[in-house]
Amino acid sequence: MLKALIIDDELAAQRSLELLIQSYCPTVSIVGKGQSVKEGLELIQRYNPDIVFLDIEMPQANGFELLEQLPELNFEVVFITAYNQYAVKAFKYSAIDYILKPIDIDELVKAVEKVSELRKKRLSPRERYATLFQNIEEILPRKLVIPQTNGFKYIDLTNVVILTTNADTHTFTLVDGTISECPIGCLDLEQTLVSKGFISLKNGVLINLNRVEKIDKRGNGSIIMEGDISVPLDQHNKDKLIEQLEKLSMKGNG
Length: 254
Known about the structure:
The chain is α/β, with parallel strands linked by helices and about 250 residues long.
């Protein structure tokens, strides 16, 4: 049985994770819960856990600062957070997984399975970093957390057809026709999306290559997306953009 701690300042988030673990992770026993870095350190010293489900954003000090106060980590760390910008920093702590809120049950179960395997065999730091990198690469292309007036929501990037940006707003158009918006400046969207199967056609417009239906080369040219969304090409960059689209599409198909 894996002894586990949950460190999260939100009681509702603690309870939600606890219920998911009890329902879907029978090999895990939750031995303690804390709401702060101070409580987390005390619980770790008291219970010597196998796994710590650790929130990152907490009052006074964050999850990374908790780990910095421990000279040696004798447990596995699974970060649980609503913010995807911390993924790279998680490498420093060789976390076994990085799960975005709201928690996906399959991701939680897989994280526990990885911990079980790790407790059976010792992996080198290189192997641990490789595991985390793979986990992050699997999670971040699918999920993007964006701020909303009353909290946060996550968007499955595979369902985004097009992203347009004006003076103050990012607008996501999804494959089912729904629209989601967030303020400009809250995320470095172009850098994130271009590395995840999107392409920038012109300033303020990014499209999902997996949602391209056809390329119309007539005249200045345009890209026809799912949902019959037509995106005109810049006449000065038409040939270059079409070549890039075709290369990326072939790479994706391969």
